[in-house]
Amino acid sequence: MTYPEFPDSENFTTIGDILNGAVDGKSISVRGWIYRTRSSGKLSFVVLRDSTGIIQSIVSSDSVSESSFTASKKALVESSVLVTGIPIKDERAPGGWELKASNFEVLHYADTFPITKDQSDEHLLNNRHLWLRSRDMVSCLKIRSTIFQAFRNYWISLGYSEVQSPSFTTSACEGGSTLFNVSYDDQNEKSGQKFYAHLSQSWQLYAEATMFGLEKIFTVAPSFRAEKSRTRRHLTEFWHAEVEAAWTHNHQMMELEEGMITTILNEVLSNNLSELEHLGRDVSLLQNVKGPFEKMKYSDVIDELNSLGFDLSWGDDFGYKEEKALTSSRTQPLFITHFPKEKGFYHRPDPADPKSLVCHDLLAPEGYGEIIGGGERIWSPEELDTRIREEGMEPSSYGWYMDLRKYGSVPHSGFGLGLDRLTSWICGAEHIKNVIPFPRTMRRTNP
Ligand code: 4AD
Ligand code: MG
């Protein structure tokens, strides 16, 4: 391929700027890709796309050179192009504007694009590297980007520091059933010793150590779970936004989370209205989300679920079915507190009712369910030792974690937010796979 002379960025206008009316009546150039194309006689109608929108360009054999016209007729969908012309307001055109071309140049002629209309989910997943160009994906990924940035900004504005923890670890944070094991055996040829590690399910245990220095911290990182469940909300590699703070009780952390969720929603509503509209999201539902969020104890949730036809008793875990039933008719997020002790070895048992924990989940409304799991951590060494044994685990394999309670232990709380799940709810997505560029599940690690 020979590269044509490539003009500087400042000579180009984005399609978004044309649609906003910023360049009304001037001759401008756009660069992008062909989104749709058809021609009839002396006219080509080429819809162009860039990351900011789509616009139809009209290429007439009367107004452009012969080579421009031939190129506009020949180029297939996804060819990369440089088009110069005058934007003209036209209410009938998609987006309200059309570009009357004076020059049409093809930078690269695309082969026949393997994605056409109405393809199966499987085909789109197999061609994810190409499907990422779709307006659906671009809309979700723009919203996702706002969410990640708003999460960071919120905690930074409260004086929190961003810190990283390792992905290779040997202490399970969220139980053995979803651990991915990794072999380290090639690393230690001399000793012949084999090393094993897991991929991290959560930064929490490391966060509790780091917190003693920095006090208020957060991270944004992938977490890994060998999830057997094939639901609309499970990935094997997901993006985990986690927070940990010293001198903080469970109810205080819940209040901060409420502020975080409403701040993130406001950011998306002020930056991504057109993307939400493209996705067909009912924006009023997001606009109406307001604190304080409803709070229910686990035992009351069991009663509500049983009144909806479930048959649950104390100690039973909620899965997607239960959470869907609980949240389908709700329009506000719901906090569930006082889960049974078995939910986590590290949560602090409630002194007033030690069979339950000082912890919480936050469930998104509209049938989405859990997006946050968090709570207050045990800070007494004796209590932690008891809980680790009660859960059938070996305190010695949590040596360094136990150590943290020996040197100036303090009350502290934290949580983990599933960013893909939050994005899924905000986008109104049918499946969590729709809101991450390259989804990983038990059956997919490619592309
Ligand atoms: O509720 P989880 O398991 O809590 C923890 O990992 C705590 N150690 C976090 C903490 O206190 N620092 O996971 C937290 C959140 C869930 O609420 C969910 O949103 C998300 O992580 N999550 C997943 N998201 C997508 N796919 C999966 N397989 C997920 N597993 C958990
Ligand atoms: Mg959870």
Overall description:
By secondary structure, the chain is of the alpha+beta class. The chain has 2 domains: 9-108, OB fold (Dihydrolipoamide Acetyltransferase, E2P) (Beta Barrel); 125-435, BirA Bifunctional Protein, domain 2 (2-Layer Sandwich). The protein contains 14 helices and 18 strands. The chain has helices spanning 15-19, 66-74, 121-126, 128-131, 135-157, 204-214, 250-271, 273-278, 283-287, 298-307, 320-327, 381-390, 399-403, 419-427, and strands spanning 28-40, 43-50, 53-60, 80-89, 97-108, 161-162, 168-169, 181-183, 196-199, 216-224, 237-246, 294-297, 334-337, 349-350, 353-357, 359-364, 369-376, 412-418. The strands form 4 sheets. Strands 6-10-11-18-17-16-13-12 form an 8-stranded mixed sheet. β2 and β3 (53-60) form a beta hairpin. The longest helix has 23 residues, at 135-157. It is elongated, with a radius of gyration of 27 Å. The two termini are 26 Å apart. The mean pLDDT is 94. It binds 4-amino-1,4-dioxobutan-2-aminium adenosine-5'-monophosphate and magnesium ion. Magnesium ion (MG) binds next to β17.
